[in-house]
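Worked example

This section walks through a single chain of length 461. The input is the sequence exactly as stored; nothing has been trimmed or padded.
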Amino acid sequence: MGAAYDPNTRTYLGRVDDTRMALGGGALREEIDVERVLPYVQVRLYDPDTEKSVIVKTETFEGVSPEWNDNLIIAYQALNQEAGFTLPELKNTRALLYFTLFDMVGNIQRSSDNTNKFSINIEKRYLGSFSIPLVTLFQNPKMEAQFKVDRPLFLFGYFNMKANIFDDDPSSRNDLTTNPFIPTHITLSISLNPVIELPYKNDADYYGGGEDPQLLLRGANYIRNLKSKNKFANRHIRLFAENLSKTAKIESKFIPRYLTPLKPPIEPIDNDSYIKAARFVSLIPFKNDTQLFKDLPDLWSTAQEFLDLKAGDYEEHAVLLCCYFMYIDEQLKKTSVKNYLVMGTGVPEGQTVYVLRRDASTNEVEIWNAVTGEPYYFKRILQYTDCCGLKLMKTSAIDRTVSDFVCPLQEIGNLPFISKNQLLGCIANNENVWINLQDDVSPNTMLFDIENPKHWQPFLE
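Given that input, the structure is written out below as tokens.
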């Protein structure tokens, strides 16, 4: 059946759509008869406080890896348009940007009664979606990254491209699969006009009462000394996190004090316990601090407080998962594996906290998103420089065949499009906090050799 394009409906009519290609990379083999999708993206700004929404969408674009190159503009208005935006309104907004991916399918049917009469059926098929909190855009006035599309577990009649694009076997790149765990991503560039930048607490500020005053003062001076250097002037170095005391007083606590081995509600403890623990933590509801603790600074709840509240945001999920991982490693005698909190900038969440598992013997790294329970794996291999048949120099490079290149955690340090007041550049375990000294800030390019003082500087010597 032919496929005629209708400019009014922006779709091809009379398509064969029994087998269609879900978004993926690479070219199809000629012997595989598969229809390509005709997708478009719908963007919806929804504010639950006002129950108002604005919807725009891209043009349709046919292809396995479509490129829309559309400019979409959405207006966001203050509750009081005469007075304009207020700081509490911006900080506490629950507005979300929803991105939904659809496939447009058209069908022409000839009437059985009248051969000159046709009926046109336009079908919009849901392929997946994701959302970005609007407050994330306030924290990152300009954002350009790849966003993972949350697809249904199975899309019947759709296939995606299998395999790693760096695989040496070219035939494997063209194989089709219905594997639901091969992700789909969309690259977006989002900016605010005019730029709205929320104020942030000075990194050197602290609340007394929760730690030894000498430790707090030393930490504040340590951060000020780092900030005096150009390399760290725009990095957010965090040593302490705020917590509510029993008397409801805000106190600063040394971040390593949040971490200790905790037994997860899992039996027995084996190698599958990591996935089960991550699944358990991801099922705890997510709520921002602005919803739980209004008019208070960013608070870090302990693992027990998190379970008692039955909700929390990125740091609470990460702290609990890290504590579970520490216990599992302890029980399985994995002495070479260390667990850390990674404080960085991710998409679509913005300022975030992940969990890092590192095998010190092989320097293999797993980065876990505690909110979703998804891991990302990175492995480095040694490469040598040859000169006249001699191996002269040894360098470390990412193993592209097994590593995950699209990780939501975008940086552990400085990126040019991130607002200068929110750059994070440190990791922490139950003993210390380390500052990232490297120019590389992406997890798939930086080195996690924590013992190397040229790359990671410990706060406590």
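What to look for: The CA atoms of residues 138 and 197 lie 6 Å apart.
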